[in-house]
């Protein structure tokens, strides 16, 4: 017996998928419709989780290249989350950080890291990056991970610098409790319409108005205090209708400098008159949610890129895990 069921569907992008579900769900069923119709050897087709299973899910899969079905238990398949009460990870040692615009950090422990996770670096010889949060993209299990959003200039110190990292959030949905949020800047192009890259994926939308703070250490001081409208976005960049082609080139300060104030951007309003005005108002809004993170992959409920996946979740009338 159950009540208050919810359902939906999505097309996998090959990355872990966050589902925002009303609190109090006791079970969830995932159906990979694409793989149900296919005969791919070893691919999961259905998954079931109930309260008390932790991160495990029961999986039905194709054990051969036909429509026969086997079952198995998949570990680390699902994470139940409450973004308002997410515990950050412990400090993990890193043995090196490369001197590149996308530094790679060597570590023997990458557990919990996925593409899109946000980490914080500290106590490394790359002092200009210490204490800052970064989105990451390339992860080699228990070997290294890479900062996703390129800096304007490399940190300025050779590889071999030991330090630590900490997992701050598994994805941008949990990282941004309130929107719109200020973001630290890693790069700004000199162009008729400047393209801005942020250290952590920004979550902004076309039509938002943003204001810039650019201290002298970052070079492009002509942008300091200016505001503009966002005209295009990717996860890590946005384009703004400000001509920076004659401005001093933007740079990321060297590790040899004393502590400095970061270049940053903050949304200051919306522009309804602007073409492509954002579909949802950008006033400050609590983005806290409960839900689950589905692990991607061949035997993960988040599926592979292009898989069409449906889900249903609900609350049981009675739960007895005795």
From the structure above, extract its key features:
Elongation Factor Tu (Ef-tu), domain 3, six-stranded antiparallel beta sheet, single chain, 322 residues, seven-stranded antiparallel beta sheet, 3 domains, mainly beta
Written overview of the protein:
- The protein has helices at residues 33-37, 172-175; strands spanning 2-11, 17-20, 27-32, 44-50, 57-61, 70-74, 78-82, 92-94, 96-97, 104-106, 118-122, 133-140, 144-147, 163-169, 178-179, 183-188, 195-198, 208-213, 227-233, 237-240, 264-270, 285-286, 290-294, 308-316.
- By secondary structure, the protein is mainly beta.
- The strands form five sheets. A seven-stranded antiparallel beta sheet has the order 8-14-11-12-13-10-9. It has a six-stranded antiparallel beta sheet with strand order 1-24-3-4-5-6. The chain has a six-stranded antiparallel barrel with strand order 16-17-20-19-18-21.
- The mean pLDDT is 87.
- Helices cover 3% and strands 39% of the residues.
